[in-house]
Structure formats: C-alpha cells, structure tokens
Amino acid sequence: xxxxxxxxxxxxxxxxxxxxxxxxxxxxxxxxxxxxxxxxxxxxxxxxxxxxxxxxxxxxxxxxxxxxxxxxxxxxxxxxxxxxxxxxxxxxxxxxxxxxxxxxxxxxxxxxxxxxxxxxxxxxxxxxxxxxxxxxxxxxxxxxxxxxxxxxxxxxxxxxxxxxxxxxxxxxxxxxxxxxxxxxxxxxxxxxxxxxxxxxxxxxxxx
Length: 207
What we know:
Mean pLDDT: 88
Shape: globular
Strand content: 35-45%
C-alpha cells in the first residue's frame, strides 16, 4: 500500500542487494540473474534502466541494466481509481547481474497473520511535497488477513469489495502510521531471514 513512511529508516549498504530502482519512479526486485519483477502498473513504453543494489539514488558504482522484454501479468487490471489486480511485471535484462537475488515465496501460509514483513523503497517520504527520497528506506509492517483488510476504514475510505486473492494487506501500527510511499510501487515486501529474505509481495496500492 502506498502511503507515508513514518518511522522508516535508511538502509545499510548491502542489506537488500536485490533491490532495484526502475527509471527513478518504481522499485523492483532481482529474482534471477537476468530477471527482475516489478508492479504491473510500472509497465513503460520508454527504455527502462534498472539500478540494482543501490542505497543512494545517485550512486554511480552500482550495476545498471536495461530491460529487453516486459511481460505484464495476463490478468492485470486497474479497477476504480488505483486498485491494481494481479499487479506484476516480469522483466528480462540485457545481461545478467552479479548481485544476489531474493527468493520467491512458494508457501501460501507465509506470511501468517501478524507476521512482520519489511517494505522498502525510494518514494515520496513527504507525500505532499513531491520529494523522492535520495536514500533507500525500509519500514517494518505486519501482515493482516484480507477479510480484516476489507473491513477496515480510514478517513472515509473503505476497502470493501476491493480486495482480491492476488493481494496481500499490511498494517503499520494501530493507526497505520507506517506504510510504503507514493512511487514505491513495485518495490519488494519481504520476510527477513538470517540466511536469506523471502519475497512475499510487491508494493502496489492503498489508501
């Protein structure tokens, strides 16, 4: 869900080497040496450059790769103003990356309700100032059930009849004071681990 990160913290170099910045307006994750995944609504008619493994937006020493092919999920759709369904985009890179990949989740029971996940990105941390972050931020969130998500309301906004099985909902505290940001779309949401992180979702949309 894309909102303001409050309590998000800058990331140490090397912690999320699979994170990639897509043309400065979306995030992505490296899932194979020559394959990255992003949100379906990040599909672009422009030439796409991925900056892989960066922590600072203007880093010049990290890997840069161009996208040869984009494959949007065949059932992708945008419903209403900003409700993205099957919001996935697979990208083939022009040459393999040497950086570590993130593992894909294959267990439908992960994350379990209440489990902590990490969302990251370089989006607009000021929300109303259109100020993209110069540094990669990460924020701790918790998974909630889709049913609980549908029942939630905030400042007149409701998720009723807007949540589908392709979605994972998260919350960032009692008042949802922590969240991902605008322009974090496509950025990885992971279950962190000592040996490896597990990719469980991508930043997509939210109120």
